[in-house]
């Protein structure tokens, strides 16, 4: 194809016959190019799919895209028309296509001094591609990331390229939130929000759900900080928290005040790309909550007193199960038998660690290595009475012994005062 320069001075496009500039309506996917405008830029004797790229000589990405555009034009010949459009002068473009190492190999037609096409097909950045069918219908609008062999082949065949509508782009409006504008228009999002208690909304709502194809949202609504952290960190027990004494009243309802949730419950949500690892997401949440609450929240290895459940070596009777219908009843009133039937031993450990933070129950760690179901019947007033439990577990070949261990704990303490900008610029 011979290189062609189409100087888009509006006389050539017969603007007086097309429309008054004030009446121009921006087109989008599914619309048709006005026939007179289409005929003005269309130079082939028969109508074929036309790919229009808006570009600038200062755009590196545009220049890098010229070789594949030329290759597609050469490969498909008269079955496709690829047209370059710029608002820059004819003189500037002529020099550019003569001197630039990459651009001087260009054999595509181009339009200079455009003021019309960009009104019909507005954009915020270049390169900007508009995929127009042979009948003038706009099939897609995209960036060059969708300029693939598969899409071009489909386009030449008269079919829409595989381009989502969301790539059309948006014009940023600072008067509203970035999230509302980017949601559905951006493949990757990182967005978090934090509020106080929301009246009229149910308490303790939490979960996660997909946001579009590429993102995931975590939400925690009307929950205490410890409850949020317990869910984020894998349903850890309240006795795994170390809270500085100066912060207890902020996070713990010590007096069981019925209205305290109005001031100590919060709402938090986080949207992240779905491929971010779970542990990384948890770190982001901890950092967010630390910043929002102006405290320091971290997971640290703390040396503390705790209890370890072990198998007694050479014990004659090692706990097992006769199977049957599974049953768990570990919180019966005092004087009633506590039952764990055909259930994993981990259910007992979890129950012993459960409770409120102010109960100050010691951490119990399972080091038995038992993963199979067991049957245990305990004659104790409460599974949280350690001396009673130590005695009741011995017949099952289990020993509950006190130890000093360094174990992971969630530490909440005042935030250290640090100067964010120690250096004056």
Structural class by helix and strand composition:
alpha/beta
The count of β-strands is 17
Q: How much is the radius of gyration in Å?
A: 34 Å
Beta-strand fraction estimate = 25-35%
Biggest sheet: strands, sense, closure? 6 strands, mixed
> Going across the major beta sheet, what is the strand order?
1-4-3-2-5-6
In whole angstroms, the N-to-C terminal distance is 57 Å
Choose one word for the global shape. Answer: elongated
Oligomer: single chain
Helix content: 10-25%
Task: Report mean pLDDT, rounded to a whole number.
Answer: 86
Treating each run of at least 4 consecutive H or I residues as one helix, how many helices?
14
Low-confidence stretches: 6-19
Jot down its keywords.
425 residues; alpha/beta
Give a brief description.
The chain has 425 residues and is an alpha/beta fold.
């Amino acid at each position: 194809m011979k290189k062609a320069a189409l100087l888009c001075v509006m006389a050539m496009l017969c603007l007086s016959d097309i429309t008054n500039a004030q009446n121009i309506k921006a087109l989008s996917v599914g619309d048709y190019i006005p026939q007179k405008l289409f005929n003005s830029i269309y130079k082939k004797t028969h109508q074929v799919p036309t790919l229009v790229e808006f570009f600038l000589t200062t755009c590196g990405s545009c220049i890098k895209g010229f070789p594949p555009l030329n290759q597609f034009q050469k490969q498909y010949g008269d079955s496709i028309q690829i047209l370059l459009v710029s608002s820059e002068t004819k003189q500037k473009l002529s020099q550019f296509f003569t001197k630039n190492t990459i651009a001087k190999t260009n054999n595509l037609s181009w339009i200079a001094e455009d003021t019309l096409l960009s009104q019909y097909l507005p954009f915020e950045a270049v390169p900007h591609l508009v995929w127009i069918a042979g009948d003038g219908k706009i099939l897609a609008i995209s960036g060059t990331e969708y300029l693939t062999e598969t899409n071009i082949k489909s386009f030449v065949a008269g079919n829409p390229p595989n381009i989502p509508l969301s790539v059309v782009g948006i014009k940023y409006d600072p008067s509203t939130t970035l999230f509302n504008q980017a949601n559905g228009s951006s493949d990757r999002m990182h967005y978090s929000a934090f509020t106080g208690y929301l009246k009229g909304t149910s308490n303790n709502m939490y979960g996660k759900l997909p946001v579009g194809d590429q993102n995931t949202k975590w939400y925690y609504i009307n929950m205490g900080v410890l409850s949020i952290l317990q869910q984020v960190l894998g349903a850890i027990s309240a006795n795994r928290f170390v809270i500085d004494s100066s912060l207890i009243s902020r996070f713990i309802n010590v007096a069981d005040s019925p209205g305290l949730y109005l001031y100590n419950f919060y709402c938090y949500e986080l949207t992240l790309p779905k491929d971010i690892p779970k542990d990384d997401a948890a770190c982001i949440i901890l950092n967010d909550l630390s910043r929002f609450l102006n405290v320091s929240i971290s997971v640290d290895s703390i040396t503390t007193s705790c209890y370890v459940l072990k198998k007694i070596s050479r014990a004659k009777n090692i706990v097992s199960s006769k199977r049957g219908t599974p049953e768990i009843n570990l919180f019966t009133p005092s004087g009633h038998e506590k039952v764990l039937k055909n259930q994993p031993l981990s259910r007992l450990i979890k129950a012993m660690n459960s409770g409120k933070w102010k109960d100050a129950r010691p951490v119990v760690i399972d080091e038995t290595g038992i993963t199979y179901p067991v049957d245990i019947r305990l004659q104790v007033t409460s599974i949280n009475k350690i001396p009673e439990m130590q005695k009741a577990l011995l017949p099952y070949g289990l020993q509950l012994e006190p130890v000093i261990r360094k174990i992971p704990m969630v530490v909440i303490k005042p935030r250290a005062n640090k100067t964010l900008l120690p250096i004056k610029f």
